[in-house]
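Exercise 7. Predict the joint structure of the components listed below.
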Amino acid sequence: MKRERVILVFLAALVLAACGTTSSSGGGGNAYAGKTIKLGAILSITGAGGVYGPQSRDGMKLAVDQINKSGGVNGAMIDLTVNDDASLKAQSAQLAQTMIQQDQDLALLGPTLSNSAVGVHPLAESLKTPILAVSTTGIHIVPDCNYPDETPCKYVFRDSLGEQTAIPDNIMAYAQDAHPKTGVLLVAQDDKFSSDGGTIVQKTVDQYGIQLLKVIKFSKTEADLSPYVTQAVQLKPDVIFITSLGAIPAKIMTEARNEGWTGQFLGGNGFNTATVSKQAGAAGKGARSASAWYIGNTFASNADFVNAYRAAYSKDPDQFAAQGYTGIKIIADAAKRANLTFTDLAGDRDKLRAALETVNIDTPLGPFQFTSTHDVKQTVWIIQMDGAGGFTLVHEIKPS
Amino acid sequence: MGQQVLNAIFIGSIYALFAVGYTLVFGVLDILNLAHSAVFMLGAAITYSLVVNYHQSFAVACVLGIASCAVMGLVIEYICLRPLRRRRAPPIAALISTIGLALIIVAAVEQGRQGSIFSWLWVDGANSVSFPSGTVPNPTWHVGGLTLEATKVAIVPVTVALMLVLGYFIRFTQFGRGLRAVAENPRAASLMGLDVDRMITLTVVLSSALGGAAGILFGLAISDISPYIGRDNLEIRGLAVIVLGGMGSIPGAVAGGYLLGAIEVLALVVFGSNVRAGVAFAALFLMLVLRPQGLFGAQVHERL
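Solution:
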């Protein structure tokens, strides 16, 4: 009898030990159960960035719903708060401060615009809070968020494909296909995203033997862009590069086609929404850009996302929805492996930051990892407008 | 260069159309109605929604769009202007109240998405949209190396016709004479038996209807309809135009519109795109220094 008791105690100890091992390898399952992972997103729901922010929000909420319905992150539920910065830099930074210090969010996502990121990201870095950019594509987002100080920021990550990768890839692909000789750049000079894109075009074209005949700068508040387009068209370039946001690319394409120009449009992230393709219509047919995402990809992680998004919102997702959705999946994966304590916020933020560096998951964007500089490492999809409000895939460029 | 001259004329017409509504209210009330840019946007947005979401013909949509803007004129008068006038508030108070209304209108439209409480008005949120092709016939002609797009060409005669009708209305009708009397001296006009409040209401309604019509033409010709077209694209330039032309002068607003369009395009061609806006506003500054009353401004005491 005594021996049986000893064996029972031994077996019970073994079971407990096994549970302990499981929970530590799975990220502290017991510690997570019943807890809440507080995340905050700063998005531009209104204002100029309102073209992109709502889709990011919808993508994020879909991911949160899916994760919570399937048991959460090791049993912890994600609580996502989305705040609208109205596309204003100052408001964006103010929100970030509140969410980090007052709301005590574990991590942040956003902001929507690169213009606002230059205020928000250094703040998150100084307050040692992980922040994941889900749509910003400008220069000096990662790793040098405190530019001109080039010290790499430790807490800032990005899942959106930077223009520094996208624009050169797009130009390279078209140069290999069609060997253009001349180009004109039309760039909105009063917007960080657009002017950064223009800078990248100017630095890239020489490598592919394209002579830039003229750089035409304009303000994004111009009522009518015809005078600028006329100037570009009269130079008879093979390519017109457009780096701008919102309705501007479509307006330029329409005007250039009306003036009889038949060359190739190449652009940046500003092309990558169905809204722009729809607005450009037939004038945009064939306009190429490099995208972080392509709706027609049939691999499971994308097909599942597209189907779930359509079921939830009765419309197609776009790149911004895919990046927002991916952002939540990335943070959830890192949180799962981070052994969070839920008692030491500063410590948990550090653990999450470290875990983010080793994310390696399948997402709607394709297989996803961060580079050593916290930038996105993913396949680049070269897409072109189909003239009817959609896109077709032209090339697929694997990460080097 | 020929194409750029055409561009200058087209853009000048848009500036002129927008600025006339501004200057009409300023001429009568001595205040700037900064809700005008929001009404301009509303004209385009409502007409677009009627065509695309409610499947109305463009003509019906235009009439309803302009009528809605006229009603918005009533809202401006009864909410933003008249209560302040009754309290003898300074003009700056009315300026601020119209800014407030403009912000509310723009915010309401940008909140308009499927499922939102404003989806009856607008469903495209912050997005820019354009009328579907075929809404109005829009052939493009290529003549002697020049490109002429029908919707842009149409803006010029429409602008001129509207200005002529408005000019006739103000110069030769009973209402116009009353309007000029109120603009000259509201107290004296009131003592002469004129219903000043009614005249002011009609002015704001007329100005808003014109603003709505301008918005519709802008949406057609520029293919850009979004909550921000008035505020971002035209508000400041509209102010520049009425300063150039002479505050409160309708012929001045028309001339100022074409002048600003010409200066901007000329600056682009001669000096390049980097300095275009700078040159245009330097010209404005010069005008203020040399002729503060503007091209058609009131050295003469008669207004409008």
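Discussion. DSSP finds eleven helices and two strands in chain B.
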